[in-house]
Each structure stands twice: as structure tokens, then as C-alpha cells.
Design brief:
single chain, Serine Threonine Protein Phosphatase 5, Tetratricopeptide repeat
């Protein structure tokens, strides 16, 4: 199973379903604006990237990739509900593009919806296992540790509080484990 792109009909075929490519309304100008916005996103300059993507969307209003990145920028600027709506709209327009699913997952992760975000990252990785963004997000979420008392269920209050204590003792600080 894989993704097959039909240039004749400008569609993507995935698991028996067919979806349009994002090339309908692309112009050189909108592609240039998108490339500049991507560079701003890499530098974490979301204000400028959001403005560039808004201009690109004026030219290509139905481009799912542009909508998805615009939603990501809006979310990183603080409006998570609007960002989720934009990213979900992009995912409806093109549900087989891994980066669109990753951007939606990033917004859901910002909202604290880890399970849904992990499912989207996994789905993006299943569609294209060369997608470094999906792999990076999955690895960044980490691996769940074993319960402190393995013969008790994970939902046990004793395991819950001992796990919190272990977490504090090991000194978790945002991005990684601190050495004692």
C-alpha cells in the first residue's frame, strides 16, 4: 500500500480513495510567499509567517497546505481554537498529506490532547514513513515509563502518586531528563 500520484488527473490515490493535489490555484507568487513563510516558521517568527500565509491564501484560498501552515502560525500566536478549525479544514481537504496531519497534531498537542495528537502523528508516519516531521514529533513525545509497582495496575492511586514522586525526583525539566 502506498500513495500513488496521478499527474494526468492531478489527484492522489491512497487506499482506494482519490484526493485532489494542491496544485489547482498555485501561482509562482503564492509558492514564493509560502516558501518565505516556511523560512519564518523555521526561525519561529510566526507573526511574519502568518501575514505571508494570509497573502498566499488570498491567491490560493483552497490550498490545504497553506491553510494548515496558517493554522499552525495562528496556534503558535495563541488562538488555539481558530488554529484547530483551520487545521481540521485542511485535513478534510487533503487527508493524506502527512505534514497537514502533523500540523493538526501539533495544535492538538498545544491544547493538551496527547492521545489524539499521537494518533495523528502515527497516521502521518503510516502514510509516509520518510516523513521526518512525524517521526520527530513521535520521538519528542517520549516513551511512557513502566509503573513504579508493576504488579499493580497503572490506574492504582499508589502507582499514580509514586510515579509523580519519581518524576519529581528524577528532575524532569521541559525538554529532557536532568542528570542528578
Amino acid at each position: 500500500m502506498g500513495v500513488r500520484i496521478s499527474n494526468k488527473h492531478k489527484r492522489i490515490e491512497f487506499r482506494g480513495e482519490s484526493f485532489p493535489l494542491d496544485v489547482r490555484d498555485d501561482t509562482f507568487e503564492s509558492q514564493d510567499l509560502f516558501r518565505r513563510a516556511e523560512a519564518c516558521i523555521m526561525r519561529r517568527n510566526f507573526d511574519k509567517a502568518e501575514a505571508l500565509l494570509a497573502d498566499a491564501l488570498k491567491i490560493s484560498p483552497e490550498n490545504a497546505t497553506y491553510i494548515s501552515y496558517h493554522g499552525l502560525c495562528v496556534g503558535m500566536l495563541g488562538d488555539l481554537s481558530e488554529a484547530e478549525q483551520l487545521c481540521r479544514k485542511a485535513a478534510r481537504l487533503n487527508p493524506v498529506d502527512p505534514i497537514i496531519l502533523v500540523n493538526l497534531g501539533r495544535i492538538l498537542l498545544e491544547e493538551g490532547l496527547r492521545k489524539e495528537a499521537r494518533a495523528l502523528f502515527s497516521r502521518a508516519y503510516d502514510i509516509d514513513n520518510t516523513s521526518s516531521a512525524a517521526a520527530l514529533e513521535l520521538s519528542g513525545m517520549g516513551v511512557r515509563r513502566q509503573p513504579v509497582i508493576p504488579f499493580l495496575p497503572r490506574t492504582s492511586l499508589l502507582n499514580f502518586f509514586l510515579g509523580k514522586l519519581r518524576h519529581r525526583i528524577l528532575g524532569y525539566k521541559g525538554l529532557g531528563w536532568k542528570k542528578l
